[in-house]
Automatic annotation (TrEMBL):
Keywords: Glycosyltransferase, Membrane, Transferase, Transmembrane, Transmembrane helix. This is Glycosyltransferase. Belongs to the glycosyltransferase 2 family. SUPFAM superfamilies: Nucleotide-diphospho-sugar transferases. It comes from the Bacteria. The chain crosses the membrane at residues 305-324, 336-356. The keyword Calcium does not apply. Residues 40-205 form the Glycosyltransferase 2-like domain. It comes from Marivirga salinarum. Its EC number is 2.4.-.-. GO terms for molecular function: glycosyltransferase activity.
Amino acid sequence: MILAFFSIIILFYALALLFASKIWRKLPELNESGELKSVSILIPFRNEAENLNVLLNSLSQLEYPNDLLQVILVNDHSEDGFNEVIQSFEKNFPFKIKALSLPPQLSGKKSAITAGVKHSNSEIILTSDGDCSFPKDWVQKMHAPFEISHIQLVSGNVVFKSDNYLSRLFQMEFAPLIGVGAVSIELGNPTMANGANLAFRKATFEKLNPYSDNISIPSGDDVFLLQKLKVEHPNGIFYQKEAVVETQAPKDFKSFYRQRKRWAAKWSATSSLIDSLPALAVWAFHLIYITAITYSIITTQFMILLPVVILKIISEGIFISLILKSQGKGFRLDTFAVLQLFYSFYVLIFGLSANFGSYTWKERKYNSNERTGN
């Protein structure tokens, strides 16, 4: 009876992933633009001097009318040599470029984004991070959905730069998050987006003022904007699968831990129980999955559970491989096998740690249990 219950739960999870894979395959593509709109690319950064050279070089190669595109760089109290890097590009940069610095009384990514939006004179805002690089048609692809008048926000695809085994492992772990975010948007209940590849109408941002009640929470600029926008414009969010931005993978397991704890903390910071349900359901599933495997081994009945475990692994492999393919990355069986060994334990640990202790981000320390309005 107990194993039957476990089998049903695992089977339901596997079927849900197969359904998500079907949704991913059928995501609409909008790549043709009519009349081009003015666009501002907004890059908040802190201590990114070592990455700005790659960033600005990539931005300089974008294909978009130079009279309709501007780049706004917002410095969040950096303590490195960022200014020299920016100045070396300013003279020959093909687009208008504006560098701002937050005043002493303001700090954090949300303040930087808000300041950048205020200094923009464009209709569309594109946001990314200081360690990213872009395909030449990035702006065109992220701009295209705004030809539909009710679209207010476009979320794009994000991939880690994977040049070694560890970064490939992190990328494979990251891919399902991108996929779940895309599928949730397509199903009409957006749960997550990534600020490394996000676009929105300036007028909508200014009207919503999305950070007014959560400015004390250091991250979550993307999630809080998404949550507030879906209340006012439930059909106004689009996922652009073909627009892929590359960002730096964590350098090591310590960096990975800090990043994931920060992400888990921002998701737990939402004040809406409904928005938290998908994450709670995933956490509960992995607790049940580990319990099921342990119980079946102890009772020497693992062979009864084996068919649904195999189906679960296959469904995860299909979902991840589809996402990686859209990002121009290959599916590696050895990396997937390693991920299978620790992933459920990782989900449980980070789900719990999100509510306790502190984490460091951009040389600043924050409490994990901060909540909206605190």
